[in-house]
Each structure stands twice: as structure tokens, then as C-alpha cells.
């Protein structure tokens, strides 16, 4: 009889626990399990997407159709950003400045990685400088970038301002770049030389 009594007592305890917050604890445990499962699935999908993007990126190598496919299907991936920057550089080297500018603009619009943003802004400004579109170049160089990339952006601003004949402003931009560089940076000498020539 005592075993039956203990069973009834356990059932009553379980009912009491359920009525006094047990269902919320159960719901919390279910929500946590679902959240964990969702996170695992999401990470798996991201990994799969990145792998597919990397495979497609390896096929780009100057193929505009493949690059467009990569940009459309995997616009947020690092592989798309890297392939776009590499393609833009090849186009620039081949003298196809408008096409290079288009690729750099795509990176600025679609990639949020600090390195990609800074690289695209700097290189697009160089393209615009080559095209003598100085005001457009300076506008691009006002793109917010991570503080660690400020020296290269300010140096490029100095180059654009020098090309415009704005010596005082160019010196100020070079000085800003110099001030943000570490003492052991190899770029310090080049900046100092650019300033000395003005």
C-alpha cells in the first residue's frame, strides 16, 4: 500500500509543480532546444553557402558571366567580395576603368566587411582619379571605413587633392595619414616624401 501511496504522492507533486510554473519551465526548455537547433541549422546553411560561393569564385578568373552569377547568388559572401575586387583590379590593369569602377561600386554596395569596404573605396577613388573625376573620388573617400584603414584613405585623398592643385589641403590629408600610421610603418617615408614635394 505504501508504494501506491508514494506513487499518488509523486503524481500530486508533479501536478502541483506543473500548475505552479512547471509548464513555463517546460516551455523555456523547449524554446532553448529549438533555438539551439535553429542555430545549428543556420550555421550549416551558412557554411554550405560559403563553400558553394568559394567553388564558384574559383571559376570566375575574368569570366564576367560567372562573376555576375556569383554576385547574384552569393552577394554577402567573402568569396563574392574577393572575386569582385580581383576582377576590378584586372580590369583596371587592362585600362577598362569604367568596368573596374562598376565592380568597386558593387563591393561598396554589397560587402560590409571593413577590409572590403576600405579596399573598394580606395581603389574606386584611384580609378576616378585616373579619369580626372576628382570630386567623385573625394566623395568616395568620404565612405566611412574602419579606423585602421584611415591612413590609406587619407593618403589617397592627398593624392586626389594634389592632382587638383590643392597643395594646402593635400598636405593636411597626408599629415592626417601620417599621424595615424604606426612609427614602424614602411609607408611613413613615402608619405613624408609626398609632403616634401608639395
TrEMBL record:
It comes from the Bacteria. It holds the Pfam family TPR_21. The keyword Membrane applies. Gene3D superfamilies: Tetratricopeptide repeat domain (1.25.40.10). GO terms for cellular component: plasma membrane. One of its GO terms (molecular function) is protein-containing complex binding. It is found in: Cell membrane. Keywords: Cell membrane, Chaperone, Membrane, Transmembrane, Transmembrane helix. The chain crosses the membrane at residues 24-42. It is a single-pass type II membrane protein. Residues 15-198 form the Ancillary SecYEG translocon subunit/Cell division coordinator CpoB TPR domain. Belongs to the YfgM family. This is Ancillary SecYEG translocon subunit. It comes from Simonsiella muelleri ATCC 29453.
Amino acid at each position: 500500500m505504501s508504494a501506491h501511496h508514494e506513487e499518488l504522492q509523486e503524481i500530486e507533486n508533479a501536478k502541483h509543480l506543473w500548475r505552479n510554473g512547471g509548464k513555463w519551465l517546460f516551455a523555456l526548455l523547449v524554446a532553448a532546444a529549438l533555438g539551439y537547433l535553429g542555430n545549428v541549422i543556420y550555421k550549416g546553411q551558412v557554411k554550405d553557402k560559403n563553400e558553394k560561393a568559394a567553388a564558384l569564385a574559383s571559376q570566375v578568373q575574368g569570366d564576367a558571366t560567372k562573376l555576375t552569377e556569383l554576385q547574384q547568388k552569393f552577394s554577402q559572401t567573402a568569396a563574392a567580395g574577393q572575386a569582385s575586387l580581383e576582377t576590378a583590379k584586372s580590369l583596371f590593369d587592362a585600362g577598362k576603368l569604367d568596368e573596374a569602377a562598376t565592380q568597386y561600386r558593387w563591393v561598396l554596395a554589397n560587402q560590409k566587411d571593413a577590409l572590403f569596404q576600405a579596399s573598394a573605396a580606395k581603389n574606386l577613388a584611384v580609378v576616378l582619379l585616373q579619369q580626372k573625376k576628382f570630386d567623385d573620388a573625394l566623395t568616395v573617400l568620404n565612405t566611412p571605413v574602419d579606423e585602421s584603414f584611415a591612413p590609406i584613405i587619407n593618403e589617397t585623398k592627398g593624392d586626389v587633392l594634389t592632382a587638383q592643385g590643392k597643395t594646402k589641403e593635400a598636405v593636411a590629408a597626408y599629415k592626417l595619414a601620417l599621424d595615424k600610421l604606426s612609427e614602424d610603418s614602411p609607408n611613413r617615408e613615402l608619405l613624408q616624401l609626398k609632403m616634401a614635394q608639395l
